[in-house]
Design goal:
Elements lengths: L2 E8 L3 H18 L4 E5 L4 H7 L7 H8 L2 E6 L9 H13 L4 E7 L17 E7 L9 E4 L7 E4 L5 H18 L3 E6 L5 H16 L5 E6 H10 L6 E4 L1 H14 L7 E5 L5 E5 L16 H13 L3 H16 L13 H9 L4
Parallel strand pairs: 1-2, 1-3, 3-12, 5-10, 8-9, 8-10
Antiparallel strand pairs: 4-5, 4-11, 6-7, 11-12
Helix pairs in contact: 1-9, 1-11, 5-6, 7-8, 9-10, 10-11
Bound molecules: nicotinamide-adenine-dinucleotide.
Length: 350
Amino acid sequence: MTKRIAVIPGDGIGPEVIDAGMRVLERVNDEHRLGLEFTHFTWSADEYLRTGVSMPPGAMEDIRDHYAAVYLGAFGDPRVPDMKHAADILLGMRFQLDLYVNYRPVKLLDERLCPLKGKGVAEIDFVIFRENTEGAYVGMGGAFKKGTAEEVAVQEDVSTRKGVERIIRYAFEYAKRTGRKSVCMSDKSNVMRFGGDLWVRTFEEVGREYPGIEHFHMFVDALTMQMVRAPEMFDVIVTNNMFGDIVTDLGAALQGGLGVAASGNIHPGRVSLFEPIHGSAPKYAGKDTANPIGAILTAAMMLEYLGFYEECSLIERAVTSAILDHETTKDLGGSLGTRAAGEAILKRLG
Ligand SMILES: NC(=O)c1ccc[n+]([C@@H]2O[C@H](COP(=O)([O-])OP(=O)(O)OC[C@H]3O[C@@H](n4cnc5c(N)ncnc54)[C@H](O)[C@@H]3O)[C@@H](O)[C@H]2O)c1
């Protein structure tokens, strides 16, 4: 059965890293007869500046109704300071397609890449689930007396029972499915009392339904400290949109930097979106220096979501082998450009 994939390279280094990821995907698709069909979309800052349109009318419905997954590079361009096109496309898809699970594995592939003293691949292997459709990112709020000395700005942080419960439940289900032993919920409920109370109560209630899985709570400031001091204490972490955004960059640093980190924006059973964690890194755009591994591991994650487990492992093994042989870009200590680093992985696919 054919599965349609929407490919959106986006801005900055997006097109280069997605090109490397597509070479891997096309090779695996051809050789393993996965039946994937790719459609490329040129939505980007360039197109927005030229046409004034970020995403054509009907495009969101088309993605929702006719595609199995979206493979996306990054958005962000200094010529669009308000990020209008990124908000329409990326946040637009997260919200309108209700992609409530932001899935970000933190897995160290080579001890050499870890910035922590005395920690290695055994200690750094956990998963973060970030709530992806609520929190401070809903854009509720406003300004009063703007531009005056009395200016007031209000930015709301929204949590709903439905939104909190489904991400927490997803984290427990993931732990159960993959044999992980514990789930840690992190928030700032000592200060943000109302939303925090909802998160804490829901976590306790859902946690009781999974007696085989240990569950514990940690304030987010303590979480950041423990991720550095004792990352081995974590299996699965679940947190809100804002804290998840921040702690996953810390997680990326533990596994070798933004260039190697992958992420999925998932609504189980529906079209879901996969993107490397990094942004468009405009100063590296077009220079053949960006690390393609984040995009390639993202491609592997997308295949896993689509049920191609063997092919996902194949790609992960090829990436690990290239890293262990130092055939990487400079950010990982190698000397290759984006394209050559992608080729180094491609040739290891067998
Ligand atoms: N999901 C997204 O599309 C997304 C995510 C984050 C930032 N952004 C946008 O991207 C633009 C740049 O943001 P930023 O500079 O804060 O973050 P960034 O992730 O683009 O880059 C930060 C730094 O990380 C390193 N880096 C990132 N990707 C790398 C790669 N593939 N290989 C090697 N090194 C890499 C570079 O040193 C870079 O300067 C902004 O417009 C921002 O809003 C978009």
